[in-house]
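Q: Predict the bound structure with zinc ion.
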Amino acid sequence: MMKKVFSILLAIFLLLTVSCAIRQDEFRTPEPDMQETYDDFDAFFDKITALTHAITMFYWDMDTGGMPPGAIETRARVISVLDAELFEMKTSETMLTFFQYVEAAIERGEATDIQMGLYREFIREYNRLMCIPADEYKAFSELAVLAVAKWEEAKDKSDFSIFAPYLQQLVDYQRKFIIYRADAGMVYDTPYDALLDDYEPGMTVEILDAFFAEIRENVVPLLQSVTSGEGVIRDDFLTREVSEEIQLNVAKMLMETLGFDLNRGILAQSAHPFATSMGRNDVRITTHINPNDFFDSFFGVAHETGHAIYEQNISERLGFTPLETGSSMGIHESQSRFFENVIGRSLPFWEGIYDVFIRVTEGIFDDVSALELYAAVNIAKPSLIRIQADELTYPLHIMVRYEIEKMLFNDPDVKAEDLPEIWNAKMQEYLGVTPANDAEGILQDIHWAFGEFGYFPSYVIGSAFAAQILDVMENDFDVWASVRALDFETINGWLAERVHKHGAMLSPGEIYAQVAYEGFNPKYYVEYLTRKFGGMQ
Ligand code: ZN
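A: Predicted complex:
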C-alpha cells in the first residue's frame, strides 16, 4: 500500500458555494507579461510541496507510534488546518493564473514537460473538486466518517444490515457527484467509469471487462487444476517462530539487496504495513512483525520496498515539486508487486538469496532447501480474505469487488442490502468458497466505508502491469540471471529509465507507452500466471 495525502476531506472547509463550470472556457486571453511571473509559481508549488510533506510527516508519526494517544484531537486539528490551507491553494486564483499561463505557453509551443505535468495533475483535481456543491461534499465527508464507525460495528457483530443504509447513502452521493461531473463536461461512457478514472486515469469499464473476462476464462480453471494437487508441497516451516530481532535483520538485508537506499529511507513498524514519501530523499516503509508469521513480514517488506525504490529513483529534476511522486495507484502497485511476486516469489531469487537468508535467519530454516522455500511461498488455494490471498487467487478477489461496484453504479436496481447474497454467490462461483458470515465476506474491506469506489481494480492492474513489464524486460536482457546473481542495479536501472524517473510527470497511459509500445495489455498477466502455476502441481 502506498499512502498519499488526499484532499478528499478538505471540502469540509470549503465554505464558498462554487459553480460547476469547467474553467477551461475562462481566462482565454493571457496577460502579456505572464512569462515573468513563473518564479512566483515556483514559490507557490514549493509551498504546496512543503505543506504536503508536513501532513505526511504528521501521519507517519501517528501511524508508527510516535504520537501519545492523548494528542489525537490536537493532531487532528493541526492536520485539518494544514489540509484547509492546501485546499485553498489548490482552488486559488494563483492556481487559475497558473492554468492560464501554461495554456498560453502550450499555444506558443513553449510549455516545459514539468509545467505540463503540473497542469495535468492540478486541473484534474481542480475540476473534480469544484463541480460539487460545497455543502453536499461536506455532508458526504461527514457521512463517510460515520460510515467507518458503522462498518467497524457491523464487522465486529458480523451483521451487514448495520452498515447497509450508510453504504447506500454513500453510493447515492457518489451517483449524484457523477451527474455533477457530467454536467460540468466530464463525461464518461458509464457512471462507474468516472470513479475508475479517479484512481487510474484513463481506465474504463470497457478495458476492465475485457481484462476480467480473460481472468475468468483462464484463472478460474487454472486454480481448479492447481488445487487438485494440494497437499504434496511441504509447508511445515512457514509458521516457525522467528524473533523480532531476526525478522528486522532479514528485512534490512532484503531492502538492501533489492536496492533500497537506506541513506534516503527508513524502516519502522506499524499495525498495517505501508510506504510513504516526502520526496526521493526521504522514503519510508513499515512492517508488521508477527513471530509466527515471518513470511508475511518478509513479503510485506519486499512489496513496500518496491514502492520505495520507485520513489527513490524519481529524477532529481522533479525534486521538491508536486510531481515527485508516482504516476497512479496502479503504476505504483505494479512496482510493489514486481518486487514482491514476480521477483520475490521466483525460484532464481530463492536460489540467489538462499545462503544469505540461511545465515541471517540464524539456523531456523537450515533443513529447508531453496526449492522448498520457493514452492511453499507459492502455495495457491482458495480463501475468503483478499489480503491473505496468494498470487493466483488474488485477481479473483478483485473481480468479485469490481463486478459488485460496477453493478452498484451502472445498474440502479441493485441496492446495498442485496450485496451479501451477491457477494457470496460470486465467491462460490469464482473461488469455490462461501463465507460463513458477513465479517469474512462482504464486510472484510474498509474501502467502501470511506466512500471509495473504483479503487480495488488498481491492485490488479498493478499485478497485470508487473507481468507485462517482465515480458518486455526479458526481451532486453537475461532478467533471471540478474536475479540469481542478486544484481538489482541492472533491473532497477531499467525500471528507473522507463517508469521511476518520470514520477507523476507522465500519465499512466504515457508510462504504459514508455514500457510497452502496445500500451496496457492483460494477456501477459494470464500468460505469466499460467506459466508459473500451470507447471506447479
Ligand atoms: Zn502496495
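A: Residues 1-2, 303, 307, 333, 336 surround zinc ion (CB under 6 Å).
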